[in-house]
Design a protein that fits this description.
The complex is a heterodimer of chains A (about 450) and B (about 100). Chain A has 17 helices and six strands. Chain A is α/β, with parallel strands linked by helices and about 450 residues long. Chain A folds into three domains: about 1-75; about 95-265, no CATH class; about 285-455, Rossmann fold, CATH 3.40.50.1220. A six-stranded parallel β-sheet of chain A has the order 3-2-1-4-5-6. Chain B is an all-alpha fold and about 100 residues long. Chain B has a domain at about 25-85. The chains are: A alpha/beta (about 450), B mainly alpha (about 100). Chains A and B meet through helix 1, helix 2, helix 3, helix 4 and helix 8 of A and helix 1, helix 2, helix 3 and helix 4 of B.
């Protein structure tokens, strides 16, 4: 096939990617959109295979190994492990861009300045996406501690690494024959990825996931510039834009700037600031009492957080929802944008448990109606329902938009113990007059409620 | 191709991406991430040509890139499909 035809196929592929993303705009058409996008990918790859002078043995080898790994992981992964899996795949995307850039460089006997600069970008961004995503994977899967790792002079160290990379870039571009600068830059960009994710704690993971997602797209676009492939540029920038928007949404949902998330190691700096404003006592409640309140309730809102994922409680929650509905109550779910460890984490878990997506309400939809709900059940969420964000100016999360669970008639908090949330911030919600604590594993507590309803 | 043309396309694609993604509801953010991740596996297309080089170093690096990009593409699309298959509307509910 000659190059013009391949380029025409690339245009079709780009259109399919765009249409596919457009269809992702609604849950009803989203699955179709993903299939359209995958068709775009398939025809782009098939057309490329007709390029003259390919080494099919190596390509088939790569296809088989990569395809088997991808397919097995995609089929086996648990829905609760979705954040770490997305992080891992993201890292592989970055690594692929690094290798494409590197390979293109070796393939070019007399590189020009623009080529060198874009190759360098694809290697740098690809490299830091790879190690950053691997570290995020480690933190999310709890292979390593999810607590932020902060030390004195962190910003200075990170900035120095970045400057060193730029210096390597300049030295390398001036003298492309000397590859040592390139290797040093590869090493430094891998290091930068680690250093950049280290200070970020579990609760801030949605931001980092979005940002790394964006980087993997930008790295692909940079590789596209390097090898002069328009399809890589278009597809890469679509992904880059998507990640940037998600990052922005996540930052807004926490009322923090991106640099604050990236550099401040939330919760470690300002834990002991401010006096305890709220006075009151924690009122524990038995499952029996909870059952009587729920039985009388005519409207219930469920507010899930990361704790629901940890306890794998989504299926029993769905069971409770059905029993409450049978009992005549209205049940909805309120999802905070940063609940869980990645954007949309709670929605996927509840979808897995067969909860219809039209019952999942966003923060802005639920807050104006909150006082009309008889019961708010908080399952493993903490900071996203913390009224201190509205009321206590000295609180580190003051100003963050939260779900106003405290305005419901009665609030049930399902919690393992009285330990404070991830960020180590006191939650006055637990001390409010209308709050009852249901201590224990969320899954067990809800199972108990479910069996009370059944008996 | 002219550098300026490539940059032109890049800028337009970013704007298009922003317009498209802004319309994605938050309930679909996880599938959006994994689906866009699969799209970023488009580097596969670049890796294919490089894997065919006569230079052993180039083709080896290219082949490794083919492998990783394929994981991204196959795994990304499959897992996104798995997730999206689970998103259901309320049975018998009114259509939107």
């Amino acid at each position: 096939m000659n190059e013009e035809i391949i380029d025409l196929v690339y245009i079709v592929a780009a259109v399919l990617f765009i249409v596919g993303l457009k269809f992702l705009g609604s849950p009803a058409s989203a699955r179709k959109g993903n299939i359209i996008s995958s068709v775009g990918m398939a025809i782009a790859v098939i057309a490329t295979l007709f390029t003259k002078g390919l080494n099919y043995e190596l390509i088939i080898g790569g296809f088989v190994i990569g395809g088997v790994i991808g397919a097995v992981v995609a089929r086996k992964v648990e829905m609760t492990s979705m954040p770490e899996m997305v992080a891992l795949f993201n890292g592989f995307g970055g690594l692929a861009s690094l290798f494409v850039g590197w390979s293109a460089l070796k393939n070019e006997p007399s590189p020009e300045l623009f080529f060198l600069a874009t190759v360098f970008l694809s290697i740098l961004i690809g490299g830091l996406t790879f190690t950053g995503s691997l570290l995020a994977y480690g933190k999310l899967s709890e292979r390593i501690s999810g607590r932020p790792f902060v030390y004195m002079g962190q910003r200075i160290v990170n900035s120095s690494i970045l400057i060193a990379v730029v210096v390597c870039a300049v030295l390398f571009i001036q003298n492309p024959a000397d590859q040592n600068w390139l290797y040093l830059a590869v090493g430094l960009s891998l290091l930068l990825g680690v250093m950049f994710v280290l200070p970020i704690g579990g609760a801030d993971m949605p931001v980092v996931m979005s940002l790394l997602n964006s980087f993997s797209g930008i790295a692909a676009a940079a590789a596209g510039f390097a090898i002069g492939n328009i399809l890589l540029i278009v597809a890469g920038s679509l992904v880059g834009a998507s990640g940037i928007i998600l990052t922005n949404i996540m930052c807004k949902a926490m009322n923090r700037s991106l640099s604050n998330v990236l550099f401040s190691g939330f919760g470690t700096v300002s834990t002991s600031s401010g006096p305890v404003v709220e006075q009151g006592e924690v009122k524990p409640m038995s499952a029996d009492d909870a059952y009587y309140v729920l039985e009388a309730a005519s409207s219930v809102v469920v507010i899930p957080g990361y704790g629901m994922a940890v306890a794998q409680a989504q299926h029993v929650v769905k069971e409770l929802q059905e029993l409450l509905e049978k009992n005549g109550a209205e049940v909805v779910y309120a999802i905070h944008p940063v609940a869980g460890r990645m954007p949309g984490h709670m929605n996927v878990l509840l979808a897995e448990a067969d909860v219809p997506y039209d019952l999942l309400l966003e923060m802005d939809q639920i807050n104006p109606r909150m006082e009309n709900f008889d019961v708010a059940i908080i399952i493993g969420a903490n900071d996203v329902v913390n009224p201190a964000a509205r009321e206590v100016e000295s609180s580190p999360i003051y100003g963050m938009p939260v779900i106003n669970a405290d305005q419901a008639q009665t609030v049930f908090v399902l919690k393992r113990s009285m330990a404070s949330g991830f960020a180590g911030i006191d939650n006055p919600l637990f001390l409010k007059e209308n709050t009852r604590m249901l201590f224990g594993d969320a899954k067990e507590s809800i199972s108990t409620l479910v069996s009370e309803f059944k008996s | 191709m002219d550098i300026i043309n490539l940059v032109f396309i890049f800028v337009l694609a970013i704007f298009l991406g922003v317009e498209l993604i802004n319309k994605v509801p938050s309930t679909l953010h996880t599938p959006l991430m994994s689906g866009s991740n699969a799209i970023s596996g488009i580097t596969l297309v670049g890796a294919l040509a490089l894997a065919g080089s006569d230079n052993a170093m180039v083709s080896m690096l290219g082949a490794v890139a083919v492998g990783f990009a394929t994981i991204n593409v196959i795994g990304g699309y499959m897992v996104t499909d798995r997730m999206l298959a689970m998103f259901k509307k309320k049975e018998g509910g009114d259509g939107k």
